Amino acid sequence: MRLKRQTVLLTGATGAIGQAIARELASDGARVVLQFRSDASKAGALAKELGHGAMALPADLSDPASPTALWQAAEDAAGRIDTLINNAGILTPSSVDQSLEDWHRVWHGDLQVNLMAAADLCRAAVRHFLGRGGGRIVNIASRAAQGGYRAEAMSYGATKAALVNLTQSIARGFGPSGVTAVAIAPGWVKTEMSDAYVREHGAAAALSGIPVGRMATPEEIAELVAFVLRPSQTSLSGAVLDVNGASQMR
Ligand code: NAD
Questions:
Q1: Domain count of the chain?
Q2: Ligand 1: which of 19, 37, 146, 193 to mutate, judged by most atoms within 8 Å of the beta carbon?
Q3: Are 74 and 53 spatial neighbours (Cβ–Cβ below 8 Å)?
Q4: Alpha-carbon distance values, 159 to 22, 33, 146, 183, 233 (Å)
Q5: Are 180 and 134 in contact (CB under 8 A)?
Q6: Contact (Cβ atoms closer than 8 angstroms) between residue 114 and residue 62
Q7: Which pLDDT belongs to residue 209?
Q8: Are 187 and 140 spatial neighbours (Cβ–Cβ below 8 Å)?
Q9: What is the pTM of this model?
Q10: 248 belongs to a structural domain
Q11: Is ligand 1 within 6 A of the CB of residue 138?
């Protein structure tokens, strides 16, 4: 019960990785505020399963006003918030052969959900934390953040790289005020996102280049988030934690 009496706002909570994080943190005693986009019944059922005062709040993070409204709603409902986890994310394929209009639509969409929503929530979180002796931020980035990414998913890679840099800036800038920030950078995780790639390109293509021979599970990511949030883990601030089966090393 390392996270007893801690309140965590978790975005993308009904996704594969989000659900695993929510379960892991609740098993450590945290009260988890679950953000969902449209699946109210799934989010409500998850909140009920988690206990510890878990609750579900709706937000469509593609709307630029919604991240700040989400934070406010979470604060109104929960009072103090100790931790923000930016986990919601999208990968929208694009092509240099698309019209400029379509290309811009994809880029703006990925930028809004993967970066701007996270940045707005980080802004709100830091402002909240500063008056309360500090707080914690975990941003779920990706292996795609480092070393470039697939030609049809360049916007995804670029937004995740920016998310890593944002995390490090927060760690650097607000560490003296008790705010810690860590980025987690998974390679392939066995979820709907990776299943879609496997359906299109085959399992061999997905697994080639992963020396451990398998994708990470959502539970592995969740365990790491719980470790990062242990009260003892302060010096991890600013870290980018790779979880990619040795497929990419710095
Ligand atoms: P997922 O598609 O199962 O979950 C994504 C979550 O984001 C969902 O809960 C979805 O509702 C939410 N979301 C998407 N668009 C939203 C919007 N407009 N407003 C509000 N919420 C929105 O994917 P996942 O695999 O669980 O991914 C979780 C995180 O992990 C993402 O940030 C993703 O980029 C990252 N990641 C995933 C993998 C992988 O292989 N699955 C690898 C590296 C990083």
A1: 1
A2: 193
A3: no
A4: 24, 25, 11, 13, 27
A5: yes
A6: no
A7: 92
A8: no
A9: 0.98
A10: no
A11: no
The structure tokens 């206990």 sit at 51
Please say whether the beta carbons of 25 and 4 come within 8 A.
Answer: no
Within a domain: 62: yes
Q: Which of 36, 156, 174, 188 is flagged as catalytic?
A: 156
Q: In whole angstroms, what separates CA 154 from the centre of its chain?
A: 19
- Evaluate whether residue 129 is within a structural domain: yes
Q: Could you tell me the CATH number of the domain that includes residue 96? A: 3.40.50.720
Start-to-end CA distance of the chain, whole Å, equals 34
Angstrom CA distances, 19 to 45, 126, 158, 204, stand at 11, 25, 25, 27
- 165-198 pLDDT per residue, tens: 999 999 999 999 999 999 999 999 999 878 988 9
Asked if 47 and 54 touch (Cβ cutoff 8 Å), the reply is: yes
C-alpha neighbours within 13 Å on the C-beta side of residue 54: 27
Could you tell me which residues come within 8 angstroms of residue 234 by beta carbon, excluding any fewer than 6 positions away?
Answer: 180
| % residues pLDDT > 90 (the chain) | 96
Q: Is the CB of 146 under 6 A from ligand 1?
A: no
For residue 186, what are its two tokens? 């998974």
Q: Establish if 1 belongs to a structural domain.
A: no
How far apart CA 242 and CA 235 sit, in angstroms, is: 17
Provide the 10 A C-beta neighbour count for residue 80.
12
Domain that holds residue 129: 7-243
Residue 150 pLDDT exceeds 80: yes
19 alpha-carbon distance from chain centroid: 12
Q: What's the average model confidence in pLDDT over 46-70?
A: 98
Annotated catalytic, 197?
Answer: no
The arithmetic mean of pLDDT across residues 72-91, rounded, is 97
Q: How far is the CA of 18 from the centre of ligand 1 (A)?
A: 8
